[in-house]
Amino acid sequence: MMNSLFHLEGYGGLLLSGAWMTIKLSLLSFFCAMLLGVITALAKRAKSTTLYLITSAYTTLIRGVPDLVLMLLLFYGIQSWVGDVCMYFGWEYIVIDPFHAGVITLAFIYGAYFSETFRGALQSIPKGQIEAALAYGLTNIQSFRFVIFPQMMRLSIPGISNIWQVMIKATALVSIIGLNDLINAAVEAGKSTNNVFSFLLLAGAMYLAYTMVSNAVFSKLNRYFHVGIKESKS
User: Fold this and answer.
1) By its UniProt entry, which Pfam families does this protein fall under (predicted)?
2) 178 and 98 Cβ atoms separated by less than 8 Å
3) CA 41 from centroid of its chain's CA atoms
4) Which domains can be identified in the chain, with CATH numbers?
5) Tell me, what DSSP letter sits at residue 171?
6) pTM for the whole thing?
C-alpha cells in the first residue's frame, strides 16, 4: 500500500492540477466571502430596518441549512436564474462553469459566517474612537480605512482563521458539481488504478499540508495586526 501511495502511476500531474484548482477555488471564494461579510456586517449596523431584516434573514438561512443542500440549491438555482434572465432579454444562453459556480456558492455561504464574525468585532470597537476620527475631520470612508478596519481585523483574526479552515474542507464538496478539484482527481486516479484508498489518503495529506501553511500565514497576520497593542493581563 505504501509503495502505491508514493508511486503515483502517472497521475501526479492530475493530482497537482486538482490541488491547484482547489487552491484557486478556496482563495477566490475566501476573498469574495470576506467582502460579502464586511458589507453584510456594515448593513446590519445601518439604521435601516429593511437592510437589517434582509441581512438577518440571509445569515439565519445560511446557518440553518446544511452546506451540501445549499451548494446544490445554489448551483442549480443560479444556472436556472441566469437562463431565465437570458431568455427574458433575448440573450444567448450563458452556461456557468463549475469553478465560478463553486466560487459564488462558497462565497455566499461563508459570507454569512464572516458577517457575524465582523459584526461582533465591530461591536467591540468603542464608539468614542469613531466619534474622535470624525471630529478630526476624517470622512466615513477614511474612518473605516484607518480606524475601524485595523481594529476589526485584529479582533476577527481568530474567527477568520476558523472559517477559512472550514472553507478549505468545504471545497471538497464542490467536486459533486463536476469541478476537477483535488478530490475529483484523487477519485479518478484511484478508480483507474484500482487503488482509491491510497489516492484519497494522499489527497488528505495534501489538504493537511495546505492547512498547516494557512495556520502559519494567519499566525503572521495575527502578529501584524497586534503590533503596538498591549494585551491586558487579568
Assistant:
1) BPD_transp_1
2) yes
3) 16
4) 15-180 (1.10.3720.10)
5) G
6) 0.82
The owner of cell 481585523 is 153
Nearest CA-CA partner of 157 in 68, 229, 205: 229
Residues 6 or more apart whose CB falls under 8 angstroms from that of 199 comprise: 11, 15, 186, 187, 189, 190, 193
Question: Cα(83)–Cα(96) distance, rounded to whole angstroms?
Answer: 10
* Residue whose C-alpha cell reads 508514493 in the numeric block: 6
* DSSP secondary structure letter of residue 91: P
CB 183 within 8 A of CB 203: yes
pLDDT of 102 reads 85
- pLDDT over threshold 60, residue 156: yes
Whether residue 96 has pLDDT greater than 90: no
pLDDT band at 134, cuts 50/70/90? confident
Q: Please state, in angstroms and rounded to a whole number, the distance separating the CA atoms of residues 110 and 37.
A: 8
